[in-house]
UniProtKB/TrEMBL annotation:
Keyword DNA-binding included in the entry's annotation: yes
Subcellular location, record wording: Cytoplasm
Organism (species): Lacipirellula parvula
Gene Ontology MF term list: DNA binding
Record-given protein name: Probable transcriptional regulatory protein PLANPX_5084
Residue span(s) of domain TACO1/YebC-like N-terminal: 5-76
Cellular compartments per GO CC: cytosol
GO biological process: regulation of DNA-templated transcription
SUPFAM superfamilies for this protein: YebC-like
Principal subcellular localisation of the protein: cytoplasm
Family annotation (HAMAP family): Transcrip_reg_TACO1
Keyword DNA-binding attached: yes
Ranges where the TACO1/YebC-like second and third domain occurs: 83-237
Amino acid sequence: MAGHSHWANIAHKKSAIDNKRGKLWSKLSKALIVAAKEGGGDPTTNLKLRYAINDAKAGNMPKDTIERSIKKGTGELEGGNLEQVLYEGYGPAGVAVLCEILTDNRNRTAPEVRKIFEVAGGKLGATGCVAWMFDRKLLVRVAKEKIGEEALMEVAIEAGADDVRTEGELYEIIAEPESYATVCSALEAAGIQTDGSEITRIPKDTVDISGDDARRVLKMMTALDDHDDVQTVSANFNIPDEALAELEL
């Protein structure tokens, strides 16, 4: 399994549990704020906002909370002053890690993220230390039960996607970030319901890990993913199938 896909699949399953607890509302709210700030508060003309709203509804976020987040993004309410930051560094076994951050207080977030790295035996690095190992891509998830692979591939590739691949119970559509509107609009027009979309980082190459290294890396990834200010976390690890079975995930 590719490192990104493996972690993305674990994180996707974990988010279903977290959503029930309301743990992801902060992240969903920030995604709404940024989408509204970048493209306006009307989801009929702002596709990114429309998908952020869909994700928020899937996370059981109340309608009034969604509306407040959008108004923060458009400046109608205070609280929309978020800074986008990319933190990067190394985890256990030399695994490269990238964290996309949305924060209203970098002085608070930086030491908290640094501590997560250090507790895991890793180290937060300087700007640019590992970013070159990743490609920035659009990732759209579609449940296998919604559509066949050939039909999905036909729509996605025609819309400009780079690839469609299988990961567990999901299909993952990979495309350039600039294709966000084109790909998502094509899926919507074809009546294909998605299980979420994001602009994320996909490793160009991966490193194999297993045993205690794999456990430490996954523990660190979970801690980063659980941080309210971390919107996405990506890494370049690969856990071979035989090693994955031993982890009892």
